[in-house]
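Exercise 7 asks you to align residues with tokens for two separate proteins.
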Amino acid sequence: MMSAALMNRLISRDSVRTEATVQSDVRLVLLEPDLGLAEHELEVALETQIGDKRRIDVEVGCTVIEVKKDLRSPSVLARAAEQLAGYVTARTEQVGQRYVGMLTDGALWIAYTEVDGRLVEATRHTAAPGEAGGEALLIWLEGVLATRQGVIPQPSEIAQRLGADSSSHALDFATLAALYAESRNLPTVQLKRELWSSLLKSALGTQFTDSDELFLEHTLLVNSAEIIAHLVLGVDARQLSPATLLEGSQFELAGIRGVVDRDFFDWVLEVDGGAGYVRALARRLTRFDWSAVEHDVLKVLYESVIKAETRKSLGEYYTPDWLAEATVSKAVSDPLHQRVLDPACGSGSFVFYAVRRFLQAADDAGWSLADTTRKVSSQVAGIDLHPVAVALARVTYLLAIGRERLTAPGRGDVSVPVYLGDSIGWSQTSELLSGDDLVVPTDTGDMLWSGELRFPGHLLTDAARFDDLVITMTNEAGRAAGKSTVSLSQGTVRRLALTESDVRGLNANFVRLKELHEQGRDHVWSYFIRNMARPEWLGRPENRVDVLVGNPPWLSYRYMPARMQAAFKMLSQDRGLWKGGSTTTHLDLAALFVARAIQRYLKTNGILAFVVPNPVIDRDYWAAFRSGKLGTGVEVVNVAWESPWDLRRLRPHFFPRGASVVFGRRSHAAATMPGEAEIWSGRIPKGKHTWVDVAPALNRTSSSVAVSSKDQLRSPYSSSFAQGASIVPRVLFMVEPAPVSVLGVAAGRQAVRSMRSSTEKKPWKDLEPLSGTVESEFVRPVLLGESVLPFRVLSARKAVLPIVDNVLMDGDSERIDGYPGLATWVRETEHVWMTNRSSDKMSLREQLDFRRKLTQQFPVPPIRVVYAKAGMHVAAAVVTDQRAIIDHTLYWGSMSSLNEAKFLVSVLNAPSLTEMTRPLMSYGKDERHIDKHVWKLPIPKYDPENEIHVAIVASGEELSEEISQLSFESDYFITQRQAVRRQIASTNIGKKLDEAVRELLSPGTG
């Protein structure tokens, strides 16, 4: 740990210090043990001669550092960068290695990558004082220098040292971006970029956003995975050529197939400077001990590089290792005889634990190593439609087998059965398997692939043999390009035991592949054939698997683009899964995916286990799925469901949405999902990833599931309540008082400006606040969810709302010019809206009154009850301010009398009411959502003649008076609500109210 004294001295920029003293302190930093220079026997050299009487201030490994006294001046920084560029270029030419350049004055550190003789800034770090600042600087420096060795690839280390926020990633991405900028117009680079784009458009439709940044992130991830694959086997990647690392020839020589392919992402081998980038990437990845992996760590790399919004748009929620391990353990009971498939394998978590389970069973049964490694590829497989996920999952498969087995004498050939494929079949119009043959189109045309290669279907039975055949055939065809050779070699025919009838058809393929090589269209055929063949083969009834396990994509209908919504609706209707009406937006891709995967890949009596969104087990719009009959106009698929796992009570949340795991069998007769679930609760231990470490911290009990449905709305008040208005974007409406000059403002007007909030989203959060002078009658109080405590209303927000005589106006309204302050404000906000709105065509008035949630509040009733939409506890209050507008974070209803309002508020705030409602609530990321679930309880209409009702009103009045006098230590509404709930729970009158409400809602009472 770097001393605080050194850190404070380093960043001081003291006027008395010299460049020599800064240089000396920089050297002391570099000698810190945490940087691991001693492990490489690297020296920190000062004043290294470079020729032409030039000297490098500090040199360590492949990094040159230029030290200045103070870099805050732009001119000083520019001159120093120019000087550094000369050093980096000279060193690169002299040594033949890619060098990194660094500038520092002790406080500011900037790392540069060199591309074609010029420096490109990759990452910078501003040092902070103290030991914490020293630790952060060392992490940043280590990422640049890549000097540590033997780092255990724990998730935290992966994210910190390789993730998007690391200096390592910044350097590699900056280099890659600069290489691409200079070579993007080369035909070979263009072709691979187009192939990548075409594949993802075909697989993902309008979900896919074609961007250079995403292409480069995918390139970096796949290149990293291919290098890590070598490191898993103990191969020193630094000693191999870049071409060897990205083409996978070492694996082919070792009899390990299907790991590294020639794909879209090896374009870096074909551009100037690409080899240096690969070597530098290999050096950074070699820091880790990839033999010490006990779980799927590559998902951490993916999640730390690809943005959360991108993953959400694809429905990607990667499963924690402990949950994947537990799910596999329950689903796979006989690993030596059950064939297992994850049809949406992602980075391979479920595949990892299925492989490990098979290997343990093989060891227990005394199988030989050769039999074990040969058999595993036929027992455990994965499919994903994302090429990056497939690349990561293949390395995860190797990690599961482990270095010890893969490098042991007597190990048989290994084929990694992780394939690129679309398990739903969004855009597939014809089957690749025609009769007994696999037919792969290759002719040019509008499609990415069209034409024909034909393989006898029986060759697909043995995955390893088929992969070997395709790889060998494409390699031999490439070597035969331009020659007279028209057939496979006899050595290949003998080695693969091919029959005479097989060879005739295969030789036709050989000639076609040779032609493709000669046409320069030889880039992806081995990759494509092997990837598309296995999913098609698995879909044949005789080849279906015994166990389907995994985590399907989660994507709600409301987040799907229009074209995908249309396809989703059609496919869901065919399987009886479509539910129209207001719940349509909640329908999820997970249901269709599971149904389609069962139909295509699971044999009758086969087992399924999927991690799915929690509403699967208790929301009405999943009722068809829970029925077990997953087909109407297509092949009927029947599932006999078993009790699910309900995981939504676990903390901390491991997905943005609540989760469950469903289990069942493909059956001849459907069986509805049981009304009982295994409820999991507890806190997941921080930093623990294996089931053996997590399981002791969890509680697992069986309990009934309360299925929620709008048909269950049992209270007559259900139709009386509506959600408030969506007054967004807030910057255009919510205001606070603005400073005024000494002259003040005219009577009847208020000077206001936009009230900002940390919850604003782009592009609104980046806009300048609006300001103006508006007629006071249009500055109205707005009640938000945070404005309401049980029995008490807090201060309201203020908003400029153009409402005249209960009519909502816009800039074109006839009467608005009678209010010049309002007219100016409204027209300015409309201009800002039109300039910054998304692709929707709504006017600002339509946005403000979406679904009439604003105008339905007028004329404002004299007595209203409001309650918060979200939260763990119901919080309700009476509102009598007729100027107040209700925001969408509240529900509101009009009451006929004050006593009726007091009655209903008292019922809603009773602890027993929340207790009864909670099983019916929807779960969000951090809280349940109350919405209208309270009305599923039999809350009766207020009756002034009913003794219980009258008693509840009296108790509520007394409690309300007590709560109105409470003073709070915190201004935070959550803390204030907690204080009020403690008051209700601890006082006699609160307990009396709760008993009365419990009696009111008991069967036969009301």
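Second protein for Exercise 7:
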Amino acid sequence: MVARAYTVAFEGVEARPVEVQCAVTPGLPGFSIVGLPDKAVSEARDRVRTALSSLSIALPSKRITVNLSPADLPKEGSHYDLPIALALLAALEILPSDAVEAITALGELSLDGALMPVVGALPAAMSAAETNRALVCPRASGAEAAWVEAAQVIAPATLADAVRHFTGQSPLPSAIPGEVTNTVHARDLRDVKGQERAKRALEIAAAGRHHMIMVGTPGSGKSMLAARLPTILPPLSATEALETSMIHSLSGLLDEGGISRTRPFREPHHTASMAAIVGGGRSARPGEISLAHNGVLFMDEFPEFPRTVLETLRQPIETGEVVVSRANAHVRYPCRFLLMAAANPCKCGYLPDPARACTRAPLCGQDYLGRISGPLMDRFDLRIEVPPVAYSDLDLPPSGDTSAEVAARVATARAVQASRFADAPAARLNADAEGALLDDIATPDADGRALLIRVAEKMGLTARGYHRVLRVARTIADLDGAEHVRKPHIAEAVSYRLTTFSES
């Protein structure tokens, strides 16, 4: 008899259905798993055998063969334990085969039969809903999977609970979704003394998701500004929260199954490897750029990152997705993030101060910031110099608007963009607009166009730079409540584009 259960294999954020076939046939006693399993899957036979023994279920002296279909799809992870156990119990006629075939299962078995939490419960629930099956997963993963309302989620704590559920002895209720969490920010934009121009640029970046780089001496407030960017961003929409949570589910970052409406803020150290930043490793896991999807990626000490890592950011910035290629897999992850970079003007950091700069000034600054290639620098919409704050200014009362006041303006601007791009699925914010769509929404008035053309000719703007100025100008107009882009909007957008750090 061949019994079947179903589970999933993860390819990026996509969960592909996998059929678990189990046959118990006469022959030399043995337990084999075929279908391109990795080491963790192959070891499932020992965990399953011991877990069944804890339930006083002895395996027969026959040949047990488990096939994971499609056989040419790599199978990785410990979540195959539960579907293998259920298919085996159905093949032994302990569980009804039709009930087991009607579910998608995933979970790791401990030796005493307890079900351990696994990553990817949320994408697995999406796959189960698409195939009209219920999902069976460990209790610790149930709250996460239950967010997919289209699929029934059963979350037993042990294999024994699952057996009693399928035999009708003690049916389990459906799992309940976890809590929706909203982070309360203790920081406020008014904590930053001075730096009004940088605060204004931060507001524009938040409103249109424009990439921004700040250059300034140590202690000028670059990290303080970046840390307060989340306080002015609107909460994730329901669609964005689901997209982001699916990536975090694959990385095991969802806390007790709760889905957060707070936009992610990732700040990797400059010693991080390429696989950590863009994704990869043995299992082609998502990297920091994907974990920052719909949020912020803050890269402090930007020139200190390896050149190869920085250059890999160029394509994801443009396309909003990254393809992690390996010999046996090509995995695609979304990564539509706001890149916030910070850097010192030179290696020692004091290039603008003649009394403290090194003897190699200004060549040291050109060499240091020269680690950022021209094509990558061209992708920053906003380039800000952050000057040092005078000691006398530190005792002044807070100035400028609070984070709540700025966040209200950002939310209003984003609402305008949501309405504008309602019929354009490829664009959500001004930073996504291109081609004819950009021409429709950001065509400046005659004076603004004349100014932009003069600047483009004099400063040698690339076609990418020209279009990015238009996008920023459109965002400034949205913050201003203007229907059309005018000359003042173009002028302000150009002012952020023409900053030359090497002259600091």
